[in-house]
């Protein structure tokens, strides 16, 4: 009785559903809008694609490795809690990275335009004032200082009145004292003196003579100092080389332009963020499944997947609605897009209690590494399973292009966070509704045909995205997610059941999810960023649509040519064995009864003969 009280399947499923809902809601608040934030900071499409693709590839490696290590050392609960805390902290670190000094294009709420208007008007005034001497006095320095966020332009060497200020004695003394470290300043001074002497004949030639003589003395002093410095640095060469190697990366960052500095900083922080958040899903999933399997309730494991889609829909729609109600700048000079990061951190903190009380079980006999290797062998050994794997890889690449740059396309056509959030929520809810239609679809089409239909519908969606014309134009195409993503993953699950041996269904499903969600998405992000950089958003979606349609035609032909492998139904096989056993037992019983009756008859006849 005590053991039965410890195993509470309903409580385990409730906590797992809450954890899945909150974690998916946190991701929905931030991840779909992350590319918009990168665009707002000033990254190019190619840079954005590299950042997002690196995130997917890190998840491809970290998820299985962290799951295996946490099981080996029995630290699953610590890994789950640490992943939630560290991912929330690193997500807030992203807010500390300053934007690049690049003008933002296509933003519905462009905060850079709020402060750049005065600068542009000031530049126009300065350009007008430099046309003629009669308009040079229209803009006074006092007026320029009074305007906010304005930097006074530096004086150029065309101002001839500044040249006579340099006297002979001051120039020679300055060059004797300080030109040892600034030889370029003396050369510029020579050029100014020459120009001023040509323009103003009142400047005597003695000034030019002293300037040139002081510059020559500076060159001689520089040579002597360089010789002595080379002798001193010869003994410290090894230490200097090591120190330079240590600061090579920082120096290279300083030498880059602000946009590339921003790119490398975002790449480093996003990589650390993914390393912190990747172990959460696989580790919690393994612990829950082994707990339910230990309680003989593994058939109820799939019921928690629906809560993930609902959580992502609530997160995307709720975050979009919340951000759209705010002004462009909040709390002074803070962009309203930072609310996505704070929502992510808050929901991760809310999920921490559910992760602490989630019942977990450690089954040391189950080897996940061998299970994944066997799953890969099963997929490779079946032609239809291999075609399904190639399809999921291509669909993952296409989905990454949509996830990364669909909001860019919507933003260019006037959409704000409200339109984007509701559009994402509608797509996720439509995908979650496909199981209601799965029974009817399975009677009409085979899983292979459903796989082709799902990829074709995704191509139609991408083709529609290339012709957006307004803020709400993307909503009709989002309803097709029921037949694209929903139908496709239903077909993948059916393929997993066909190819997998008993107990290997989850491993085969993880192989397909890794191919689609991580490897395909990573490669698609790299390629999508390059295509947008080179050809634009419109041709990205059209190219994806054409590629998916062409593959679906090839997929149907290859499925028709592929050999059909008869599915082994183990339940029917066991039932057939049981029926055969029962038939043999009944036949044995019948033979024994017939033999006993014959013996009885023979004995009775023999007794009668004796009596007579």
Automatic annotation (TrEMBL):
The chain crosses the membrane at residues 12-34, 78-97, 339-362, 383-406, 418-438, 450-467, 539-558. The keyword Kinase does not apply. Residues 127-139, 157-171 have a biased composition (Polar residues). Residues 17-542 form the Major facilitator superfamily associated domain. The keyword Membrane applies. Residues 125-185, 583-612 are annotated as: Disordered. It is found in: Membrane. Keywords: Membrane, Transmembrane, Transmembrane helix. GO terms for cellular component: membrane. Residues 172-182, 587-602 have a biased composition (Basic and acidic residues). It comes from the Eukaryota. Pfam families: MFS_1_like (PF12832). It is a multi-pass membrane protein. PROSITE patterns: PROKAR_LIPOPROTEIN. PANTHER family: MAJOR FACILITATOR SUPERFAMILY DOMAIN-CONTAINING PROTEIN 6-LIKE. Belongs to the major facilitator superfamily. MFSD6 family. This is Putative major facilitator superfamily domain-containing protein 6-like. It comes from Scophthalmus maximus. The lineage of its organism: Eukaryota, Metazoa, Chordata, Craniata, Vertebrata.
């Amino acid at each position: 009785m005590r053991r039965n009280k410890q195993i509470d399947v309903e409580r385990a499923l409730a906590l797992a559903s809450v954890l899945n809902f909150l974690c998916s809601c946190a991701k929905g608040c931030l991840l779909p809008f992350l590319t918009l934030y990168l665009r707002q900071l000033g990254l190019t499409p190619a840079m954005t694609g590299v950042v997002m693709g690196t995130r997917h590839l890190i998840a491809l490696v970290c998820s299985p490795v962290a799951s295996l290590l946490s099981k080996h050392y029995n630290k699953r609960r610590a890994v789950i809690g640490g992943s939630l805390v560290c991912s929330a902290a690193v997500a807030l670190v992203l807010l500390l990275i300053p934007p690049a000094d690049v003008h933002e294009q296509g933003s519905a709420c462009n905060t850079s335009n709020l402060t750049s208007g005065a600068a542009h008007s000031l530049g126009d005034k300065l350009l007008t004032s430099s046309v003629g001497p009669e308009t040079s006095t229209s803009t006074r320095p006092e007026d320029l200082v009074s305007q906010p966020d304005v930097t006074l332009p530096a004086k150029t060497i065309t101002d001839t009145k500044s040249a006579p200020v340099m006297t002979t004695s001051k120039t020679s003394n300055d060059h004797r004292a300080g030109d040892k470290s600034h030889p370029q300043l003396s050369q510029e001074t020579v050029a100014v003196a020459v120009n001023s002497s040509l323009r103003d004949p009142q400047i005597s030639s003695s000034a030019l003579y002293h300037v040139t003589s002081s510059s020559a003395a500076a060159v001689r002093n520089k040579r002597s100092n360089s010789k002595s410095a080379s002798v001193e640095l010869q003994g410290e060469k090894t230490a200097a080389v090591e120190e330079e190697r240590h600061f090579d990366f920082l120096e290279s960052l300083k030498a880059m332009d602000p946009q590339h500095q921003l790119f490398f900083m975002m790449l480093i922080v996003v990589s650390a963020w993914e390393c912190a958040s990747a172990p959460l899903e696989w580790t919690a999933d393994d612990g829950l499944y082994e707990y339910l399997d230990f309680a003989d309730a593994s058939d109820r494991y799939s019921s928690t997947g629906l809560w993930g889609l609902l959580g992502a829909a609530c997160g995307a729609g709720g975050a979009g609605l919340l951000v759209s109600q705010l002004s462009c700048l909040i709390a002074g000079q803070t962009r309203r897009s930072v609310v996505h990061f704070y929502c992510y951190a808050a929901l991760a903190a809310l999920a921490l209690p559910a992760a602490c009380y989630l019942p977990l079980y450690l089954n040391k006999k189950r080897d996940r590494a061998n299970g994944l290797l066997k799953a890969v062998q099963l997929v490779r050994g079946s032609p239809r399973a291999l075609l399904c794997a190639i399809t999921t890889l291509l669909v993952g690449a296409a989905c990454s292009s949509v996830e990364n740059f669909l909001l860019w396309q919507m933003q260019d056509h006037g959409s704000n966070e409200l339109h984007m959030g509701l559009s994402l929520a509608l797509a996720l809810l439509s995908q979650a509704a496909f199981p209601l239609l799965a029974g009817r679809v399975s009677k009409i089409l085979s899983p292979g045909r459903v796989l082709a239909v799902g990829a074709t519908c995704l191509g139609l969606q991408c083709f529609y995205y290339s012709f957006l014309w307004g803020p709400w134009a993307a909503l009709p195409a989002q309803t097709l997610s029921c037949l694209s993503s929903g139908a496709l993953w239903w077909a993948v699950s059916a393929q997993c059941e066909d190819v997998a041996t008993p107990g290997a269904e989850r491993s085969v499903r993880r192989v397909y999810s890794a191919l689609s969600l991580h490897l395909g998405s990573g490669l698609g992000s790299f390629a999508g960023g390059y295509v947008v950089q080179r050809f634009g958003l419109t041709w990205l979606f059209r190219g994806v649509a054409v590629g998916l349609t062409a593959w679906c035609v090839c997929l149907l032909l290859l499925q028709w040519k592929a050999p059909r492998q008869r599915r082994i139904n183990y339940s029917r096989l066991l039932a057939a064995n049981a029926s055969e056993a029962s038939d043999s037992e009944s036949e044995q019983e019948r033979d024994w009864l017939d033999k006993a009756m014959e013996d009885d008859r023979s004995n009775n006849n023999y007794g009668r003969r004796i009596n007579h």
